[in-house]
Write a structure and sequence with these properties.
13% helix; alpha+beta; Ubiquitin-like (UB roll); five-stranded mixed beta sheet
C-alpha cells in the first residue's frame, strides 16, 4: 500500500491510497483523479496519463523504458520529470510520492 499525493490541474491536492499489484494510472482512474485521462487503458500508447514527478522522487522510480520515452515525445507539456503513470507499478516504496497532473493531456 502506498499513499500518493496528486496535485490536480486546478491545484487540488488528492491523497490516494493505492494497493500494490496495479499501476499508478489504474489507481488514479479508480479514484477519479482529475486529468488522468488514460485513453488507452494502460497500454503505453496514448500518453494521456502523464504526470510531473516531484524532484526528490525522480531517482527513486523505476527507469523509463524505450516505449515510455518514445510516448513522452508526443506529450504537449513534457518536462524532464515527466512520467507515464501506466508504466509505474505501485509498491510500498512509493509511499509519500507526490506528482502533479499537467493542465491538459491533449
Amino acid at each position: 500500500m502506498a499513499t500518493i499525493t496528486f496535485e490536480e490541474p486546478d491545484g487540488t491536492l488528492r491523497k490516494v491510497d493505492l494497493a500494490g499489484g496495479q499501476s499508478i494510472m489504474e489507481g488514479a482512474v479508480r479514484a477519479s483523479v482529475a486529468g488522468i485521462d488514460a485513453d488507452c487503458g494502460g497500454a503505453c500508447s496514448c500518453a494521456t496519463c502523464m504526470v510531473y514527478v516531484a524532484d526528490e522522487w525522480c531517482d527513486r522510480l523505476p527507469p523509463k523504458d524505450a516505449a515510455e520515452t518514445q510516448m513522452l515525445e508526443f506529450c504537449p507539456h513534457v518536462q524532464e520529470n515527466s512520467r507515464l503513470t501506466c508504466q509505474i507499478p505501485v509498491t510500498d516504496a512509493l509511499d509519500g510520492l507526490r506528482v502533479k497532473v499537467p493542465p491538459s493531456q491533449h
